[in-house]
Structure formats: C-alpha cells, structure tokens
Write a structure and sequence with these properties.
By secondary structure, the chain is of the alpha/beta class. The chain folds into two domains: 236 residues, Type I PLP-dependent aspartate aminotransferase-like (Major domain) (Aspartate Aminotransferase, domain 2); 123 residues, Aspartate Aminotransferase, domain 1 (Alpha-Beta Complex), CATH 3.90.1150. Helices cover 38% and strands 14% of the residues. It has twelve helices and 15 strands. It has a four-stranded mixed beta sheet. The radius of gyration is 21 Å and the shape is globular. The mean pLDDT is 97. Bound molecules: pyridoxal-5'-phosphate.
Length: 370
C-alpha cells in the first residue's frame, strides 16, 4: 500500500556518518535534518528530531503539562499512536468525531465536547487533531475554538508532511506539531519522528527531555524524568536524502490519487475526501468511500477481491471510541466516523508503484465495481 521509496542520496549521508563515526543519537545529520525541516515548514518553526512520531506526541503532551487524571480531547478517527501517549501519562482521552468534508476532527463537536467537559467540572488540557491520509483538518476553526477556551493544540501531522492550508504547511499549524518518518509515511528515516514548534524554548525543552533530561553538570544529574527519544544520526542521514525528493513524492502520490479519481468519479456510490478551497493534501494514501446502498459492490467485496490478487488494501482507521482498549472513555459524535470505517478503503498508494501495478489494481476495481 505504501512502502519505503529511496531517492538515491540517502546512502551518502549514512556513509558520511560511518566515515566520521557519528553513530549516535546526535551528530551533523540530526542537525542537518532538523534544519531542512525548519526551512521546509517555515512559520519560524523549530524542530527536534526524535525516534518516532509516537515519542513526539508523548513529549508534546508532557510539554503541555498533561498529568495523570487530566483530560485530553483527541480525534477518534485515527491510528492508535495518536491516543496511546495520553494513556502513557495516566491522562484521560475524550474522543471527538470527524466531519464529512476532511474526515478529521469536527470543529462543531469539538466545541460541544469542550463545553460539556467544562460543565462537568474539568477543562481539557489539550486538543489533538489529526490530518488523516494527508488531508488537512479544519485547523483555522479548531485553533479559533482552542483560543477562545484557552486550550493548547497539539497537531498530529504524522501523515501530512507536504500538505498545507492556504500555503501554510501542516506540521506548523498549532502550538506544538508532530511528524512521523516511519517506513510507510510519505518520506521515511526507517523509523523516526519530530516535534515542531514556533516557540524555540519548547523545542529546546523537547531535546532536553528526549536525552534523559540531563542537567548541566560534569556528572549525571537529573531534576526531571527524562526519555531516550532522540533520532539516531544514521536515521537522520536517510531523512536528509529523503528531503531532496519530498516534492517528487507528493507530486507522485497526488498523481496516483488523480488516476483513481479519474477512474472512479461519477460511478454510483463512490466518493472521495475532496480538498476544500485553499486546502492541499499530500494524498499520502488514496482513499475511497463505497456506499453499500447505491454502489454495485461493497467495500469488503473490493478489499477481498484485491486480496485474492495479492494486492494490499485496508479499511480506514477503526475509530478509537470503538477500540476495546478505549471504549470506556467519553465520546462526542454523530456517527460520521462509524460510517467512514464501515465504507472506506485505502488503496495502493506508494510513490514507487509502476504503471503496470496501477493497471493491475484498476483491472480488479473495474471487475468489482464495473
Ligand atoms: C504513523 C502515525 C503516528 C505514529 O508515528 P510513528 O513514527 O510510527 O510512531 C501517529 N499518528 C498517526 C496519525 C500516524 O499515522
């Protein structure tokens, strides 16, 4: 569906790390990769490269002061890595449904949830929206509500490097943002992530906590609980090479999406997450909705037929409020995420798909939805 796709220059940076013996969770590639990301994101962004996106969300919550027993509002429709760090801290996730335009956090339901939590005596400590499959969430609306209630926003941009709203990059649209460079993402460091903020002190604090919170002293001295969350200089070398091809990867993913759209648009019961005016999606994964009431086949018909042909596809993320591990937590919704989960499918989307690969996928789609 989405496999690593090297550009060619990655190995040079990794070789340099070997030649200079920078085989550590710090070094010139880490600094260089952070600098590349800062230039790309703009907005005065500062970046701390980390071992994973999950580590970034964990640190982001720590830096926002989330503690045991606090409530954090989290998009329900997402990968578990968005919500798990809330539980690492002993905090309580409060899940909010998606809206049907972007499939991301509904600003209306966000405000309903905030009002109700405050009425119940607990003001949420943070808001955690996600840009699913690269489609930007309605960040202007979410940030406006967050400002009104004075609640900070932690943006999960793990799937959205290269996406933007009115030219402003996802990953730089909140108080703190998080990126992922896992193997399946639009660019990869094999495993890795980053924490981003325009507040330089926040990013300095993130680097401090990510290297075991060592105080300045000749001996090992600690006055805070730390983590081992820094990115390795080898992985950062892969990241520096991948930054050279990020624009190509976004263009290719968007081209693949465009081909699915051309093939399927106008067919009965098939719909897409369309870009709102000013929105630009990296189309990390190409996704479709198949309405069982009007389409000529169901989502499962298509998924299973693709599987028979050894072609990977997958239902959309199963919402967190439906997950056994999270189902006892508060949830504010109107059924949108359930419908997306029931009818949605992620199609093969990797930037290294060949024309022949695409033709094979199209043939199966035509045979099922013909
Ligand atoms: C991949 C992903 C993460 C986690 O990133 P890792 O680098 O794999 O830890 C978090 N949130 C979302 C939405 C993701 O897709």
């Amino acid at each position: 569906m989405s496999s690593p796709h090297m550009g060619g220059t990655e190995q040079q940076f990794v070789n340099e790390a070997f030649a200079t013996n920078w085989i550590a969770p710090l070094g010139p590639n880490v600094n260089g990769f952070e600098h590349d990301l800062e230039l790309f994101l703009g907005e005065g962004s500062h970046v701390a490269a980390l071992s994973s996106g999950t580590a970034g969300i964990h640190l982001g919550l720590v830096l926002l002061g989330v503690k045991a027993g606090d409530e954090v509002i989290c998009q329900s429709m997402t990968f578990s890595a968005t919500a798990n760090p809330i539980s690492y801290l002993g905090a309580i996730p409060v899940f909010v449904d998606s809206e049907p335009d972007t499939w991301n956090m509904s600003p209306e339901l966000l405000e309903v949830a905030i009002k109700d939590r405050i009425a119940k005596g607990k003001k949420p400590k943070a808001i955690l929206p996600v840009h699913l499959y690269g489609m930007p969430a309605k960040m202007d609306e979410i940030n406006a509500i967050a400002r009104r209630y004075e609640i900070p926003v932690l943006e999960d941009a793990a799937e959205a490097l290269g996406s933007s709203i009115n030219g402003r990059r996802c990953g730089a649209l909140a108080d703190i943002s998080v990126l992922s460079f896992n193997g399946n993402k639009i660019i990869t460091t094999s495993g890795g992530g980053a924490l981003v903020s325009a507040n330089e002190q926040v990013v300095k604090d993130a680097r401090f906590l990510a290297t075991q919170a060592r105080d300045e002293a000749p001996h090992y001295q600690h006055s805070k609980i730390g983590y081992n969350y820094r990115m390795s200089n080898l992985c950062a070398g892969v990241g520096r090479g991948q930054m050279h091809v990020l624009a190509d990867r976004v263009a290719k993913r968007r081209e693949i999406y465009g081909r699915y759209h051309t093939l399927l648009a106008g067919r009965k019961g098939i719909s897409f997450a369309n870009e709102l005016p000013g929105y630009f999606s990296n189309r990390w994964l190409s996704t479709i909705l198949i309405d069982p009431a009007t389409a000529s086949a169901t989502r499962e018909d298509l998924r299973l037929t693709l599987e028979q042909e050894n072609i990977e596809s997958r239902p959309l993320w199963k919402p967190m409020h439906l997950q056994p591990v999270f189902e006892s937590y508060p949830y504010y919704g109107d059924g949108t995420a359930e419908r997306l989960f029931a009818n949605g499918l992620c199609l093969p989307s990797g930037s290294n798909l060949t024309d022949e690969d695409m033709e094979r996928v199209f043939a199966v789609i035509n045979s099922v939805l013909g």
